[in-house]
Automatic annotation (TrEMBL):
Alphabetically ordered keywords of this record: Lipoprotein, Membrane
Organism in which the protein naturally occurs: Oryzias sinensis (Chinese medaka)
Region forming the signal peptide: none
Listed GO MF terms: small GTPase binding
Intracellular or extracellular location(s): Membrane
Protein name: Family with sequence similarity 49 member Ba
Keyword Lipoprotein: yes
Protein family per UniProt: Belongs to the CYRI family.
Annotated CYRIA/CYRIB Rac1 binding domain residues: 47-349
Length: 353
């Protein structure tokens, strides 16, 4: 029907088209029109409003909802602790300057030990978060219904999935702006190593063993450790479930990105948010699922055949106050996998500059 209705302008639009196939390819290249139209019709994601503020579980969802709820409650404690993390920079500086002063050394050690205990708690929580993510993916990617229907029918679980993404980006934003975290842990490892060489007791109570310390070092060395954890968990979920087509997972992610974009750019939907904080929440979720999609999908989120309207998503971000979205734009610039691929259009790259 589309071809027939365009026949009268075919010669003007695509003068080089020799047959209907050439004409379709020509139209697709001019804005990827057919892909966009059919995706919207098939998924119907533009007509879905996810209630991120009030969605409650059905009886069949209660067990998993309660389990994830406990993780999310702990997530808030982790964020509060991370936000309050000040580090032991001054004590460490004095200890380095006065290596022979036992009192100064003891003061630095006493300051660092409880901080490393906090860092250990953050790392261990990342493993709990990974478990919760996998539980939600297991439900949200089940075959039998479209991704849009899954999200619409299981709004409470979709809401929890969104909260995990929101926490993840918020944690990484705070971590990236706090260099004391890696400095404290590096000092701790150096001091522990020196104590072991000299056969001195650490008296730290909850000493981090060498294996755990190695895992923690890798975790905190990453610019966005929680996002890395979720990306790895999502990829592992796909590889561990070969009976579940990868499209079930990637379509779930791309549909949620589409729903968030539409809710943010549609006044009718956006007016349903009871606070501006929900707007920022929705923006973080949109960016989070884009990054996960980019790590899981073989071709990534930026290729022309992607199910995510990247130009539209970036445009929505650009329309917000710069101070509220710069961290999210940086997440797309520096934590995605395929942005710098040759298949990424120059326009998308320019939009992210």
């Amino acid at each position: 029907n589309l071809i027939g209705s365009c026949k009268r302008v075919e010669s003007q639009l695509c003068p080089s088209a020799e047959n209907e196939t050439d004409f379709v390819l020509c139209v697709c290249s001019m804005g990827n029109l057919i892909k966009v139209l059919t995706r919207d019709i098939d998924n119907n994601a533009g007509n879905v409003f996810l209630d991120f503020e009030n969605a409650q579980p059905s009886p069949s969802e209660t067990d998993i909802w309660e389990t994830v709820k406990q993780t999310l409650e702990e997530a808030q404690v982790v964020l509060n602790d991370l936000q309050a993390y000040r580090g032991a920079g001054e004590e460490i500086r004095q200890a380095i300057q006065s290596p022979a002063d036992e009192e100064v050394q003891e003061k630095a050690w006493s300051a660092v030990v409880p901080l490393v205990a906090k860092l250990k708690t953050f790392y261990e929580f990342s493993q709990k978060l990974e478990s919760s993510l996998r539980s939600l993916l297991d439900v949200l990617t089940r075959p039998g219904t479209t991704p849009t229907q899954q999200l619409e029918q299981k709004q409470a679980l979709a809401r929890q999935f969104a909260h995990i993404l929101h926490f993840t980006l918020r944690f990484d934003e705070l971590k990236m702006t706090n260099p004391a975290i890696q400095n404290d842990f590096s000092y701790y490892r150096r001091t522990i190593s020196r104590m072991r060489i000299n056969n001195l007791p650490s008296d730290s109570g909850g000493e981090v063993n060498n294996e755990l310390a190695n895992h923690m070092s890798l975790f905190y060395a990453n610019a966005t450790p929680m996002l890395k954890t979720l990306s790895n968990a999502t990829s592992k979920f796909v590889s561990d479930n070969p009976d579940v087509p990868i499209e079930n997972t990637t379509d779930c992610l791309s549909t949620m990105a589409c729903v968030c974009k539409v809710m943010l750019e549609t006044p009718e939907y956006r007016s349903r948010f009871t606070s501006e904080e929900t707007v920022l929440f929705c923006l973080r979720v949109m960016v989070g699922v884009i990054i996960l999609y980019d790590h899981v999908h073989p071709a990534g989120a930026f290729v022309k055949t992607s199910n995510i309207d990247m130009k539209g998503c970036i445009r929505v971000l650009r329309e917000q106050a710069p101070s509220s979205v710069e961290g999210l734009l940086n997440a797309l610039r520096y934590t995605t996998k395929h942005l710098n691929d040759e298949t990424t259009s120059k326009q998308i790259r320019n939009m992210l500059q």
